[in-house]
Specification:
Layout: H1 12-45, H2 47-83, H3 87-115, H4 117-122, H5 130-159, H6 163-187, H7 192-211, H8 233-303, H9 307-334, H10 336-341, H11 348-361, H12 365-380, H13 384-410, H14 412-440
Helix pairs in contact: 1-2, 1-6, 1-8, 2-3, 2-5, 2-8, 3-5, 5-6, 5-7, 6-7, 8-9, 8-11, 8-12, 8-13, 9-12, 11-14, 12-13, 12-14, 13-14
Length: 441
């Protein structure tokens, strides 16, 4: 019996812990990895380099979004097939997902590369920032397929019953990236391109770690070119579309917040947002790790026709997200000064803005984790249309709307409160929808 099939015979709480703990630990280290990028770049290369990295973040988010779009859709179909005992179909799904992702990654890199510096201008770069941002972006465009493949392999390895190996791969990726960032930036003084190169090399190391899964006796991830008469590309894009929207929403969030905060606080506001954006990545990745842990379990129980166990996983995910949210808010309030100090020595004006941003923005974490879990549940249990709708509203409408409404009314406080208000409304909509559905059934 494979480790994935053994889920059916274990208590859902034990299964949830087996998947959630390594997933969140791995994501936590990836979050530390992201923050350390900012710390190293800020201290080694200065504020302009930090701004250049922030400008390119939407492009990085787009590569992650592609891998989630195809990866979540494919792994959902994969786990359903495994839950139904159809191993051959599961292997076809894996093979087609790998082929599709690599092809799409190459096409996207080629198309983005054709824009040149115009792409950076569209993302908000000025003449001072563009040279550094162009160096950083160049590495992404050359080796973006490495990032997308690492992300999707992590999803498949987790869905194939090896969440601990997926965690180990994330740990190795984070450790290698931190070491390379220090060596490239402080020892060799290579400049901003080295920071991007370290990210790519560390992702390649993560892929190598995950490839050891293919040597395991319980591995079901085998490439097969016996496609039969069924191609699954359409379902990959359909099921995974909410994940794509959610990740693309990070780009919209970054661009919209840059515009809003600069309009009321200028350069100091942009710097304060850079700090809160780096710290925000920790919470974001923790919640993503939690929701990613629920995805293979919900998908498997869906295929095995075990709805009671599905709901238990959702409940465990919601409780965990609430606990994590409260802890993050507490840390943000108690250690505000220390968090800001990680990124350098700043003026009192900037410290005051960053303090306000952390204390107000972090309120969103009361709702954000629950939203992640519930959207993942809908996405992987057949409620894809509503998942797409609620994700689109969450990522592209409410945040921008409340930035437009609250910023003129409350200034910088309105900017920082836009996300908490939007997340609270989304959480309310999700709960109302699920309660109505429960009454109907």
């Amino acid at each position: 019996m494979s480790s994935l099939a053994a889920i059916k015979h274990k208590h859902p709480l034990l299964v949830f812990a087996k998947y959630a703990i390594p997933s969140m630990l791995g994501m936590m280290l990836m979050a530390v990895n992201v923050v350390m990028d900012g710390v190293f770049v800020g201290h080694a290369l200065g504020a302009t380099a930090l701004a250049a990295v922030n400008i390119v973040i939407p492009v990085y988010s787009f590569y992650v979004a592609m891998s989630l779009w195809i990866g979540v859709g494919a792994t959902t179909r994969y786990s359903r097939a495994m839950g139904a005992g159809d191993t051959q179909t599961a292997r076809r799904i894996f093979t087609q997902a790998v082929m599709l992702l690599l092809a799409v990654s190459v096409v996207v890199s080629t198309v983005l590369g054709m824009f040149g510096d115009k792409l950076l201008t569209m993302l908000g770069a000025n003449a001072e920032i563009t040279p550094m941002a162009a160096e950083y972006l160049h590495i992404f465009l050359l080796f973006g397929f490495v990032l997308t493949l690492e992300n999707m392999l992590s999803l498949f390895v987790r869905n194939d019953g090896s969440p601990v190996l997926a965690m180990v791969a994330l740990i190795m990726t984070a450790i290698v990236n931190i070491i390379l960032n220090y060596y490239f930036l402080f020892v060799l003084n290579w400049g901003i391109m080295a920071a991007a190169l370290g990210l790519i090399i560390s992702a390649a190391v993560g892929i190598l770690v995950m490839l050891t899964h293919f040597l395991h006796k319980n591995n079901n991830l085998k490439l097969t070119f016996s496609f039969g008469n069924v191609w699954y590309f359409k379902s990959f894009f359909y099921i995974g579309f909410p994940s794509f929207l959610a990740e693309m929403g990070i780009s919209v969030f970054t661009i919209a917040y840059n515009i809003a905060i600069v309009s009321v606080a200028g350069t100091m506001g942009a710097a304060a947002f850079s700090i809160v954006n780096y710290t925000h990545s920790i919470a974001l990745l923790l919640f993503l790790g939690l929701s990613s842990a629920t995805q293979p379990l919900i998908s498997y129980y869906q295929g095995a026709k075990m709805p009671k166990q599905q709901w238990q996983i959702v409940k465990y995910g919601i409780v965990s997200s609430l606990v994590i949210g409260v802890l993050i808010i507490a840390v943000g309030r108690v250690f505000t000064t220390q968090i800001i100090g990680l990124f350098g020595q700043f003026t009192p004006e900037l410290i005051a803005l960053a303090t306000e941003s952390i204390r107000l923005f972090f309120i969103a974490y009361l709702f954000m984790g629950t939203n992640f879990v519930l959207i993942t549940f809908m996405q992987t249990s057949g409620r894809v249309n509503f998942a797409i709708f609620i994700t689109a509203i969450r990522e592209f409408v409410l945040v921008v709307l409340f930035l437009v409404i609250l910023t003129p009314l409350f200034g910088t406080s309105g900017v920082w409160l836009a996300v908490p208000v939007a997340e609270g409304i989304i959480c309310l909509l999700l709960c109302v929808y699920l309660l109505q559905e429960k009454r109907q059934h």
